[in-house]
Amino acid sequence: MRKIAISACLLGEPCRHDASDNKNLALLEQLQEDTLISFCPEDYAFGSPRPTMDLQINRSSHTGSKAICNVSGKDLSTPIKTYAKMFFDTDTDIDLVIGKDRSPSCGVCSAKLYDEEKNLLSSKEAGLMIQEAQKRNIKCIDAEKFNTLG
Length: 150
Fold this sequence. Notes:
This protein is of the alpha/beta class. It has one domain (3-149). Helices cover 27% and strands 25% of the residues. The chain is built from 5 helices and 8 strands. It has helices spanning 25-30, 41-46, 77-90, 128-135, 143-149; strands at residues 3-7, 35-39, 53-57, 66-69, 96-99, 111-115, 120-125, 139-142. A 4-stranded parallel β-sheet has the order 2-1-5-8. Strands 4-3-6-7 form a 4-stranded mixed β-sheet, with no helix packed on it. Helix 3 (77-90) packs parallel to helix 4 (128-135). The protein is globular, with a radius of gyration of 15 Å.
């Protein structure tokens, strides 16, 4: 039996920015023999509903990607990164992380990255939570890609 960390919205928890979910019944059926551990750094840090955010990088400073609020322009990265470290420090024996594709926190290879002028630089980035998992060499996959594996 695998121990899988999974984006909470995929389990049906109403934790998206608009307090809805992305429940994925097909995915959950494939995972019924596994132990699932729910996570949502954005809901934990900011609650739901909340303003949307995007991954952004300042090309001149080369400091890495940050989660920037689309309403206030505020850098929201620290609470997300703190949650991610706490999560993976607590659950040290995770076999796989399934993230919500395109999420600035949980996307594995599908999050959009913008520059400070909101020009799209890439649509194949890892969100902040997933970056922490990858630093720890935990296998990660977007939910959409997991579904295609059958």
